[in-house]
Amino acid sequence: MRQPLTIDRHFIRVGISGLVGSIFEWYDFTVFIFLAPILSQLFFPHSNPYISILQIYGVFALGYLIRPVGGVIFGHFGDRIGRRKTLVFSILVMTLATVLIGALPTYQQAGVWAPLGLIFLRMVQGLSTAGESIGAMTLTFELAPLKYRGVTSTSIWIGSGIGIVMASLLVGFMTGHITRDHMDSWGWRIPFFIGFLTGIFGYLIRRQTVESVYFAAMVKRGEVFRFPVIEIFRKYKKEFLKVFLIIVPHEVNFYVFFVFLPTYSANFLGHLPQALLINSVTISYIFVLGPILAYVSDRIGRKPFLITALISIILLSITLFDLVATGTLKNFFIAQSIFAIIHCIYAAAVFSASLEAVPTKIRYSILALSYNLAYAVFGGTAPFVATYLIHRNQNLVIPAFYIIALAAIALVAVLTMRETHKEVLL
User: Fold this and answer.
1) How many CB atoms lie within 10 A of CB 197?
2) CA 320 to chain centroid
3) CA–CA separation, 151 vs 147, rounded Å?
4) pLDDT digits (tens, 9 = 90+) for 204-220
């Protein structure tokens, strides 16, 4: 059995830089969707608000549809030239795309060129994000001591949550204190321009990181694949499929619970500032529960957490969607709080379980491709699918059956996986 490498003494600093970089990159990426009620009318004006919001959700989804391409690209370079260099480049690309979105003319000012520009820049954002979270997670995971791998990998997920809360709070504050006319005129641009400052700060921090000791050892052993993505389908198909299937519920549930439900409430129940505030509160559960649950998973294993969360989704989703359908803010808060707790349980173990399931020489590529494919096919399209299902069936509870089906499939995959929390990385 290969012995564990001596972990670089800088892993705490790398973990912090990865956390901060993830915060800023996810702020840039998700501020778009919290401005969806405004952007839908500015770039896709239509007399029927359902049509406008579906179109802006379509643009939102495009940022995810391009992500598997980004996963292949960033995974390739992450497994060939290193995790650190790949991460530095990704945050620069994201910052540029975010600022340019804020500078775009609206449909009224530029006609069809406005939504075309929005679509292009959203796709650039998608390419960048494809390499960010998994790259940062892989780097910090590989530098962490065995008994803290769950906590370390979860810290990057927590960073994305903080970034999303920052975006949610800012947009909620602005929509609550700036008139709709001013938001439509110039206010919507401010969150994107702020993304320039956060992006540059994240870049400066990211430059100070060190390379993974496991990657360095892999290079020294001459185990670097020339084309990692080809090796996935030659030798690691089973590992890829299992990781993909268990990641899918995480992505779909996140975007249904924390993106779709608040914006649905804002658009069709008339609670934009209140819904965003509730959303910020429930996402903040991540910061409290995430590290605690991940720490416990480092002690008792990943599978108990994954199984508990998936069964909870299967049993409770219909009831919780019924609560949201009542249209009251109180019931919305209760339902989203329970969803958030379940999501924390799952997220506390899903990333560490995935990272432990694959070897170092192909880790970045498998995780980047499976993670981004799950986002592209299921995660990024979740708000669009949920909106379509509700509009077609005139029933808010219908999306519950969608997430239940995906949870059931993932449960089968989890039951076939071995427990890995005490295994030495290969």
Assistant:
1) 12
2) 22
3) 9
4) 877 777 787 788 888 88
